Amino acid sequence: MNKKALLLASSLLISVLLYGQEGIESKTYNLKVGDAVELAFENNISIKKSKLNLDLLKRKKNSSWNSISPSLSLTGNYGSNKSGTLDQWEGDNTISSTSWSGTGSVNLSFAPSLFTSIKAAKLAYESGETSYESMIRSVELSVRKSFYSLLYTKENIALQENALETARLTYDSNKTKYNLGRLSELDLLTSQYSYESKKPSIDSLKNSYNNSLDSFKQVLGISLTDKIELEGNLEDLIDIKLDEEILNQNLDEIPSVKSVLAQIESQKNALQATRMTAWGPSLSASGTATLGGNDKTDDSNLTMNYSLGVRIPLDGYLPWSSGALSIASQKTNLESLQLDLENARTTAAITIRNSYNAVNQAVAQLSNYERNVDLMQRTYEMTKNSYNAGSSSLAALQSAEENLASAKYNLQAQRYAIISALLDLENTLGVPFGTYNSTKE
């Protein structure tokens, strides 16, 4: 009975699991690179988290004046008392009275760093906007590179499968020749090995493609059970339009330099805030009103108090005080950031120049790779005809096959390298992706 019950429970559990899996609907996405970018903008977790942080900074900016908001309070009291001798308590002849009171108070303080606090919140929000935009660009760059990398891997798989098919045809042809007594067993086994040895690398490449596809789905923010069909090929994307004007960019508009400029602005505000704290006067004001009465009199008593105060710090004028040292520290930080700005401009200029030269050089070399494919294709066809005629060896044929496959692979690798380098250049410049590629997506 226990075995039957266990078997029944297991069957029910398996049925529930299978039903749950069937209930999950998987979608199929036919994506161009632009479609993939839009999908990531809608679903990517990092973008959503960055947006939440930006919204919080916006609320802080809009409430940054709250340090001068008055502090308000209300206090109420109600009480009763009885008094008398013991005899009076026994006869319930005690004297009783009831009293009540209400107090309202308001306190207001004005710190000299108020305006710098408001500006700091504004600068923090602007920095958050920059971080949000940077996150969006980072995700878009990742999506585009991953998309083209998947295309590259997919086309490489197709090349490897074509090479496998070529090796299979050679092997089948050699089996026929061997059966007719026109080929040695050694050559037959060699061609068989050439064919069989290509299968593991293709399986490995497909596994790598599927793993990369899962990571790509995570960036897009879609389910791992969804299917993706990539549209496009690397050859259609190579239409680069670059000119030397890129080298004459306003470096202060480059994202990496703008980031340092924003840090300098924040540091200037921090220095101003430190100065105001060390040297500026603080104002305070307070007021209270108390209204009270009791059951013995019909009149109520109203008491009002107010005070005004000012505090002028003097320690900040002493060169050895903590306030003075804080100002000196903030000045040092500002000078350090100025040096960082100079270095950032130089680094940006070098990066732009290197990327520009790398893209142009890669584009110039592309025609050589294309010619190599044509050359290896002709060489393979000639070698194949010669082998079939019996005037070339199997080793020569296999060498021609490998050279052709290698030439095609190198061509695709060069195309992907150009696209990747161009994306890095556009990311450095902060321009929309696709600016220097005239091919429509």
Secondary-structure blueprint:
Blueprint: H1 2-23, E1 28-31, H2 33-43, H3 45-62, E2 71-83, H4 86-90, E3 95-110, H5 114-179, H6 185-196, H7 198-220, E4 227-230, H8 255-279, E5 282-294, E6 301-311, H9 322-388, H10 394-429
Give an overview of the whole structure.
This protein is α+β, with helices and mostly antiparallel strands. Helices cover 65% and strands 14% of the residues. It is built from ten helices and six strands; from the N terminus they run αβααβαβαααβαββαα. It has a four-stranded antiparallel beta sheet with strand order 2-3-5-6, with no helix packed on it. Helix 3 packs antiparallel against helix 5, helix 5 (114-179) packs antiparallel against helix 6 and helix 5 (114-179) packs antiparallel against helix 10 (394-429). The protein starts with a helix and ends in a 12-residue tail after the last helix. Mean pLDDT is 81; it is low at 18-23.
Key descriptive features of the protein:
single chain, 441 residues, alpha+beta, 10 helices, elongated
Q: What is shown here, in short?
A:
The protein has 441 residues and is an alpha+beta fold. Helix content is 65%, strand content 14%.
